[in-house]
Amino acid sequence: MWIWVNEFTSRSLARHVSFEESLNIEAVKLSKGSGGMYNVSVYVRNIGSVETTIVAVYILDTYGNLIDLNTSLQVTLPPGKVTCSETYGCVTLSNVKLNPGYAYVLRVVSSRGFRSDYLFTAS
């Protein structure tokens, strides 16, 4: 009986926490830099009901191989707000080597471990 109750409670809690914290990547802006490198700005909206802190952003190829990352972020975002606005910090990667015409997965991760993925093509 204890195992069933414990498992039920754990599952309910996991669903409740993930519902409270939720991020949506709304857009990715690519700016060409020197030497064919890109600067990447990520527009992330907090669609959850609690404040969240974005701590990492990753770019992966479609096979899951890591292309670039920034794990030194501390962008705090109240519910309903979006990054890269006048008030809230930007989620960025600089000097990223991307191949035009190829698809990539952009992933943002919160301090609580919530993640959101976005598929984009370099142009």
Describe the structure.
This is CARDB domain-containing protein. By secondary structure, this protein is α+β, with helices and mostly antiparallel strands. It has a single domain, classed as Immunoglobulins (Immunoglobulin-like, Sandwich), CATH 2.60.40.10. It has 1 helix and 8 strands; from the N terminus they run αββββββββ. The strands form 2 sheets. Strands 3, 4, 5, 7 and 8 form a 5-stranded antiparallel sheet that branches. Strand 7 and strand 8 (115-121) form a beta hairpin.
Estimated structural class: alpha+beta
Task: Estimate what percentage of residues fall within beta strands.
Answer: over 45%
Low-confidence stretches: 1-13
Percent helix, as a range, is: 10-25%
Q: Report how far apart the termini are.
A: 57 Å
- Largest sheet descriptor: 5 strands, antiparallel
CATH architecture title: Sandwich
Q: Could you say how many structural domains there are in total?
A: 1
CATH class, named Mainly Beta
Shape: globular
If you consult CATH, what is the topology? Answer: Immunoglobulin-like
Please compute the radius of gyration using only Cα atoms. 17 Å
- Mean pLDDT over the full residue set: 87
Based on DSSP secondary structure assignment, what is the total number of beta strands? Answer: 8
Which series of helices and strands comes N to C? Answer: HEEEEEEEE
What is the tally of helical segments?
Answer: 1
Brief summary of the model shown:
This protein is of the alpha+beta class.
Helices and strands, with pairings:
Layout: H1 2-20, E1 23-32, E2 37-46, E3 52-61, E4 66-70, E5 75-77, E6 91-97, E7 103-110, E8 115-121
Antiparallel strand pairs: 1-2, 2-6, 3-4, 3-5, 3-7, 7-8
Organism: Zestosphaera tikiterensis
Protein name: CARDB domain-containing protein
